[in-house]
Design a protein that fits this description.
heterodimer, A: alpha/beta, seven-stranded mixed β-sheet, four-stranded antiparallel β-sheet, 9 helices, about 25% strand, B: alpha/beta, 11 helices, globular, formyltetrahydrofolate deformylase activity (chain A), one-carbon metabolism (chain A), PurU_ACT (chain A), PurU (chain A), Formyl_transf_N (chain A)
């Protein structure tokens, strides 16, 4: 029987074995009954570089009948660090989920890995996220719609906002329809409501700041301890801080952009995940700068989240990322 | 001998079929130079502003210019900036049409929030019907009428090309690219000289190229105490604008005032990010996923003048500092080339304090 355990990186939710097994069996196989025939797995690995890592990783997968479909390996020129990401298909009957964990754990120890994560999207619970937003809706909407369409493989445990939204607004009705709690936590300069937020998001795997305009303190970041992805409406490191569209407009630039990045204590300075640009010209007004920017923010944040959920984003150095 | 005034004219708004000369021009090469054209070119090579059309020469040219009686086959460009009011486009276009000119392209821009008018018109005309000096007068009248801040007309085939001085330092990729584009006829300028604070030996590509084409190379090494600005000013005083092709010295406000004309710089970064030195390294250390280049007008603030053009390219974890630099150099060449071309085609106009209109 397949044990549908949690992936090593998410917190301790155990999938109901019976219901998971049967529901996935119905979904995944082309035949009418029986266990899933072939399931996709992803493994990412980050360790000090030596000869033989790829050989051992691929051998581990092949021994269990896994068939590797995609490999990305990256070893920087000037550092002895190894990053890899493998996609493979396997048969859970031949390679049960908890044994996958054990097998990779052994390799992780063997190579003294800084990070070794395996994820089987079909069997593992989706990432649980909370979304923080302020008054600007566009990124939040876009995220919610993508999620509804199944293009954002997450569970949204709640939406937190320092901006009040009345019951008849699109966002509130949407969240109600889908049973997602909305928590209104207005902030003041003195009170950022961080303890309450921490409590609400304690069970999540990562946070998404969808144009959340409050700065999270170092204390919050340490307490939460997990990744937080932000969208900045400018091409970092240009135009940090407030109203980058106006800054860009006043500067007479011909390109504007958006940046999604991990949140660190310093404002708009964490490792960049994705950047996108669009052309602007003299014909653009501040309003069209803002519109183009909002469009970019939605795409850029969505792309970053997608990459992150597919284990394509790895931390590299102190302030950079590998994005496979 | 055909009297062009008696030649049948096309109805207003109908474009003439392209003559052989026009077809060649539209392919980007020089039209065949008949002896009359050469005569006219020689007469006008001295300066852009005070060229007088020789009517006899153009008169004889008339039979060459088209296969049917036409509005004309000579291209002109007019740019205009004035306080906005009703009727400017009407008057400008009427001016052109009344002299038999046929407008091929118009860009007009009036910002939402300011009463300023910008336009750029391309038109074809027959210099026999609309002699160059009369054209200048006609536009000058309109300029006064509308109290224009800018009114420039340019007839590329009848006027000398823009004269430029190019300044470079040690990095030569932009300089080399510029010289090759010029040689290929894709950069419609006359390069008066190349000035560098970096020495180049006689057997280097740049020096041999410049010698072959008779372009003087002036090595003016600089020191913190001496930027050689007076000597540079002297060497470039006859130019129409300057190009800083990765020239790494900062030109003083005094230099800018003395020179008085436009200076275009290429900055190897996406301004306003990474001002100053080594932006590739700054970008690399910042872990950005996009790098870029910016060409802009030079003002007293470093890397702060109005931006003309920007370009980007993606970078990733697979890029090292060297590939950051290579991608950057590639962008710089393209970005500077584009900016110079736009400028020569009168597409770039100053807009508010720190911006540009680029048609």
């Amino acid at each position: 029987m397949v044990v549908a355990g949690a992936s090593s990186s998410s917190s301790s939710s155990i999938l109901g074995i019976a219901s998971g097994f049967f529901s996935r069996a119905l979904h995944s196989s082309k035949t009418s009954s029986g266990p899933p025939t072939a399931v996709h797995g992803i493994h990412v690995f980050h360790c000090p570089d030596v000869v033989g890592i790829v050989a051992k990783l691929s051998e581990c997968i092949a021994l269990r009948g896994g068939n590797i479909h995609s490999v990305d390996v990256f070893v920087p020129e000037n550092k002895q660090v190894f990053y890899s990401r493998c996609e493979f298909v396997f048969h859970p009957a031949r390679w049960p989920r908890d044994e996958i964990n054990n097998d990779f754990m052994k390799l992780s120890k063997l190579f003294n890995a800084e990070r070794s994560v395996v994820r089987v999207p079909y069997l593992d619970p989706k990432y649980k996220i909370a979304v923080l937003a302020s008054k600007q809706d566009h990124c939040l909407f876009d995220l919610l719609h993508r999620w509804q369409e199944g293009r954002l493989p997450v569970d949204i445990s709640c939406v937190i906002s320092n901006h009040v939204r009345s019951p008849n607004t699109h966002v509130i009705r949407f969240l109600e329809r889908h049973g997602i709690p909305y928590h209104h936590l207005p902030t003041t300069p003195r009170n950022k409501r961080e303890d309450e937020i921490l409590e609400l998001v304690a069970d999540t795997d990562f946070l998404v700041l969808a144009r959340y305009m409050q700065i999270l303190s170092g204390r919050f970041l340490e307490s939460y301890g997990k990744d937080i992805i932000n969208i900045h409406h400018g091409l970092l490191p240009s135009f940090k801080g407030g109203n980058p569209s106006k800054q860009a407009f006043d500067a007479g630039v011909k390109l504007i952009g958006a940046t999604s990045h991990f949140v660190t204590e310093e404002l708009d300075s964490g490792a960049i995940i994705e950047q996108m640009v669009e052309r602007v010209s003299h014909r653009d007004t501040l309003q069209s700068f803002v519109q183009k920017s909002e469009n970019l923010e939605k795409q850029c944040l969505a792309q970053a989240l997608k990459s992150y959920c597919e284990l394509q984003v790895l931390h590299c150095d102190t302030n950079k990322t590998v994005v496979f | 001998m055909v009297d062009p005034d008696k030649a049948p004219s096309l109805p207003h708004g109908v474009s003439p079929p392209l003559s052989h000369a026009q077809e060649k021009r539209s392919e980007g090469t020089e039209p065949d130079l008949d002896p009359m054209t050469l005569l006219r070119r020689t007469a006008y090579s001295s300066s852009a502003s005070s060229s007088i059309l020789q009517i006899a020469g153009t008169f004889f040219r008339a039979p060459h210019s088209s296969t049917a009686a036409v509005a004309g086959s000579t291209y002109g460009v007019h740019v205009f900036q004035c306080p906005d009011t009703v009727g400017i486009v009407a008057k400008l276009s009427e001016c052109i049409a009344s002299h038999g000119g046929n407008i091929h392209s118009v860009d007009v821009f009036v910002p939402e929030d300011r009463r300023v008018f910008y336009s750029r018109s391309e038109f074809v005309f027959d210099p026999a019907r609309w002699p160059r000096v009369l054209m200048d007068n006609d536009f000058s009248n309109l300029s006064k009428f509308f109290n224009a801040k800018i009114s420039i007309v340019r007839v590329p085939d009848l006027e000398p090309k823009h004269k430029i001085g190019v300044l470079a330092s040690k990095q030569e990729h932009c300089l080399v690219d510029l010289l090759h584009e010029w040689q290929d006829g894709r950069l419609p300028v006359d390069i008066k000289c190349v000035i560098s604070n970096h020495e180049r030996a006689p057997n280097t590509h740049v020096i041999r190229f410049l010698e072959r084409h008779g372009i003087p190379y002036h090595c003016l090494p600089t020191s913190p105490g001496n930027k050689r600005e007076d000597e540079i000013l002297n060497l470039v005083k006859d130019t129409d604008f300057l190009v800083l092709a990765r020239y790494m010295q900062i030109l003083s406000g005094r230099f800018l005032d003395s020179y008085g004309k436009d200076i275009i710089n290429i900055h190897h970064g996406l301004l306003p990010s990474f001002r100053g030195g080594n932006p590739s390294k700054q970008a690399y250390d910042a872990g950005v996923k996009l790098i870029g280049a910016t060409s802009h007008f030079v003002t007293e603030g470093l890397d702060a003048g109005p931006i003309i053009e920007q370009m980007v390219e993606r970078v990733s974890h697979r890029d090292n500092l060297r590939s950051f630099v290579q991608k950057s150099e590639n962008l710089e060449k393209q970005c500077l080339g584009k900016a110079i071309k736009s400028y020569c085609e009168l597409r770039v106009l100053p807009y508010e304090l720190k911006k540009t209109v680029v048609f």
